[in-house]
Amino acid sequence: MALAPGKLRALTRLADRDGFFRMVAVDQRPPIMKKIRETLGEDAVTWERMGAVKAALLRALQPHASAMLLDPGFAYPYAFRDLDLAKGLLITLEQFEFEEAEGGGRITRTYPGWSPATIKRMGADGVKLMLFYRPDAPASVNARQHDFVRRIGAACREAEIALLLEPLVYPLTQDSAGAAAYTEDPAKRPELVIETVREFAKSDYGIDIFKLETPISASQVPAPEDESSAVADTQAWFGRIDALLDRPWVMLSAGAGMEPFRRILTYAFRAGASGYLAGRAIWWDSFAAYPDMAKFEAALAEGGIAYMHRINALLTQHGTPWTRRPAYRCGIEITPGGADFVSRYPG
Asked: What is the mean pLDDT of residues 111-128?
């Protein structure tokens, strides 16, 4: 498999030395805003308070991660001094607000004026793009989402930066009020997740890493240690995801608790996933100590880091390094390569 030099460097920096993606998200905005309002008052959400939370998360969890995901509104401009330059860096491109399409469905919005080239100029290794998507949404809505991802994919190819796509199944009946803070749709069907993966696995979208949700509702995922038909059925759904992808995929937590997410990761790693990109499953329990920042950071040190050690060990035991995914297992070259690289690459 041939990769552009920038793409190869980006994927390598986002992973650890063994080829696993141990990525932590601190780009969440609505859940943190809600917690600040609940504890300090309706008008208490400020750039400084949001940034301080994200800086605390970055300082505590970054040493145990291969890469961090930051948003450009709060986390990066407030906490950039805390970044470990030896770690990979992902930047969020989408806003948490979305457009309600006429006739139903959601359209993803990016920060105005922002593009993959903007994020590459910051020195980041990857663009994270969250996409509201349902295969059964109105065809006009899905056509807009398809075109949107193709444009972002082309821009990432041009900038030679990794594109991580996070497609999320959403409830068509839910209005936008309070929906920006994504939570898993408990009524989703596994087929919706599978068909979403099938669509965006097409090469014309240019996806480098897939950040995927569980096909089975987190609350219904059985303990993988059980001996039951439900375990085999659940593993089969994760296997169907893996069969559709030749490139690396990681799991998102979507606000699942620590134990449900551990179960999800076990199935995903056994199926062929190369890691995780998770936030709230790792640090939300610690956030209960807010606004006492000292207790918050102590809770992260005691609970969040211990949980990362646990899921990192699970990843090492069962996961598939990204370099062993079908697209790369026969070896990686750069394109253009060879003796005429210096003359061909500028074009």
From this structure: 97
